[in-house]
Amino acid sequence: MSSTELRRTALDALHRSLGATMTDFAGWDMPLRYGSERDEHNAVRTRAGLFDLSHMGEITVTGPQASRFLDHALVGNIGTVKTGRARYTMICREDGGILDDLIVYRLDDTGAGSPRYLVVANASNAQVVLDALVERSAGFDAEVRDDRDAYALLAVQGPESSGILQSLTDTDLDGLKYYAGQPGTVAGVPALIARTGYTGEDGFELFVKPEHAVELWQALTGAGEGAGLIPCGLSCRDTLRLEAGMPLYGHELSASLTPFDAGFGRVVKFEKEGDFVGRAALTEAAARAERTPPRTLVGLAAEGRRVPRAGYAVVAGGEVIGEVTSGAPSPTLGRPIAMAYVDAAYAVPGTAGVGVDIRGSHEPYEVVALPFYKRQK
C-alpha cells in the first residue's frame, strides 16, 4: 500500500453497495453518510443506528506488570479497574499536554496474575499512542501489541439498541453495566461486547475479527429492521457527540492543553502509587487552575441560524473572550450549537452579551451548560 493510499475497513465494499458517501478520515476511507445525516442522527436519538468504527486504534497490553505499567503510562488509576469493566482516561506528554483520550478495557486475566487490557485510541492518534506506550513500557514486565488489524469494530447505538442486540446474543445485556465489556457471541460471531459509545445514547460496541464483520453487520441490520435501525456515518456521529458534550481530539483536546485546561482534571489520579508520565507538570497545572481558572469549555446555543465553526472567535463587549472548538446545526435542538473555550468570567450559563464572530458579523449566542442533550434513563 502506498503512503497516500487510504486504508479500508473490512466493511468497505458493503458501505459502497449501500451508496455511502466516503471520506478520508485519519487515513481511512470511511462512510460520511448513507443518505440524510439528519435522518441518521434522528434515528440514533429515537430508534437505533449502526456504525463502522473499525478505524479506531486497538492496542493490547499484557504481562505480570501490565497494571503497574499502565498506571505509569496513563494519568488514570488503571490498576483499580476490575475485570470486565472499562475506564475513560488520557495519555499525556511529560509537559502535561494531552496526547489522546482513551478507553481502557480490562479483559480476562491470562493466568498467573497476568492481566490483559485493551487500550482503544482515536484513529488519528493511534500510532502516536502505540509509540508512546512501547517507549514507556521499558523496565516493566509487560508487552504492548499493535492489534489494529486484529479487530473490526461495529457500534449499535440508540434506545432500541439493547433489544436489537439481545435478539442475537445469549449475553444478559441488562446485567452489562455502562462502561463494561465482556466476551460473548453475537449472531454466532465471537465478540467483545462493550456497553460504551460516543453518541449520548445507550448503546454497544462490538469488537470482532475482521473476517466476521460483514456477517455481523448483516445480522444486526436484519434484527434491527423492525425497530428502525439504519446505517450511520461519521457526520451524524459528530453531531451526536457534540449534542452530548463529548470532546473530540483536535478540537476540544490537544497537546497544547493539559486535562486541567480542558476541564477534565477529574481523570488525573494523583493518589495512585508511584510516578506517572506528566505527574510533575500536571501537579503544577492543577495548582495553576486553582489560582487562575483557565478558559472554560461551555456550550453556545444560537439565537439565529448561522452556524459557528471551529476556530471562530467568541466575543463580548468588543473583545475576544474565547474560541469555538466545534459547531454544527443541532437536529435535536433545531438550532446551531457549539462548544467553545471562554474566559471564566463568561462561563456561567445565561451570561448575556456573548456572540460569535462569523465572517465579521457578531452573531448572538446563549451560554448554556453542557451537555446540550442528555437522554432520559
Largest sheet: 6 strands, mixed
Spatial arrangement of strands, main beta sheet: 11-12-13-10-4-14
Find the structural class using helix and strand composition: alpha+beta
Helix content: 10-25%
DSSP strand content = 25-35%
Helix count, DSSP H or I runs of 4 or more residues: 8
Low-confidence residue ranges = none
Distance between the termini: 46 Å
SSE pattern, N- to C-terminal: EHEEHEEHEEEHEEHEEEHEHHEEEEEE
Rg calculated over all Cα atoms:
21 Å
Total strand segments: 20
Average predicted confidence as pLDDT: 96
Sum up the overall morphology in one term: globular
Helix and strand arrangement:
Blueprint (H helix, E strand, L loop, with lengths): L6 E2 L3 H6 L3 E5 L2 E6 L3 H10 L2 E4 L4 E6 L3 H8 L12 E7 L5 E9 L9 E6 L4 H11 L6 E4 L5 E6 L3 H6 L14 E6 L2 E6 L8 E6 L4 H12 L5 E2 L2 H10 L35 H13 L4 E7 L10 E4 L2 E12 L4 E8 L11 E5 L2 E8 L9
Parallel strand pairs: 1-3, 4-14
Antiparallel strand pairs: 2-3, 4-10, 5-8, 5-9, 6-7, 7-8, 10-13, 11-12, 12-13, 15-18, 15-20, 16-17, 16-19, 17-18, 19-20
